[in-house]
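Long-time lurker. I teach an intro course on protein structure, and each term I like to show students one example going from raw sequence to a predicted 3D structure in token notation. This year I'd like something fresh instead of my usual example. Would anyone be willing to generate the tokens for the chain below so I can use it in lecture? Attribution to the forum is fine with me.
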Amino acid sequence: MNLPPTLVSRFDMVFIVLDTVDEASDRRLARHIVGLYADDSDDALQPAQDALPHVPAEKLTRYIAYARRTVRPEISDDAGDALTAAYVDLRRLGRDAGSTTAGAVQAASTGRVTATARQLESMIRMAEAHAKMRLSPVVEPRDVEEAVRLMREALRESATDPRTGLLDLDLLNTGFAASDRRQLDALKHETRALLLRAAGGEGDVPANSASYHAWLERLNEQSYAPVPPRLFDQVVRELQTEGVISVVGSGRNMLIVVKQTALAS
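-- Reply from a regular --
Happy to contribute to a lecture. Here you go:
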């Protein structure tokens, strides 16, 4: 997925769809696709008898149009309480599985965010949509329950830090988990110091401008571990936003120039 985090974070839910090899599901998919082109009289290629009831596309289209046009569900008091409780529970996930006090301290120290008002608004919209699907004028707790289930599943798939196994919305909002953020801050501090030293005439290779690869190579020489280009790209963007550097060109062929105003400060 090549969408920027600023755009991805605006979706109500993000699901990761993997093309895994499974003979049973592959067979069902193949039968369905072949059935679209086969003769209706060929029973061997028709869906199995235990499949879901077939709803004609025209009827389903009319049903959806009618629901969107006529149903305006309102949130009941019980549903409102359920939404509030679900949001608080999502926020509480940031405390991890430890005790309340210890977990809160750990969440604060790691800076993890597990839910924001945007997730609450998403659950409200999904609960309303679920009630509208039932042609119900009222959003009930069962609608909220389904909305919360979908939200938790979407966050589990798309916003789980692979390093820690913990939920972290920063993965969706910024593209970096809290664990990455700590490494990114340290890398940014070292990169800034390297750029200013070199531009100030210190070090083995004094220069106020050099290519992307030259700066990255120099940074790797003084680092105990290889610097991931993904993190260095973000450091370059942040230093450019802060006015420390300017860039000429684009991508990893760019020329990075330290600004004189940064040297003066």
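Some talking points for your students: Residues 97-109 have pLDDT under 50 and may be disordered. The longest strand covers residues 245-248.
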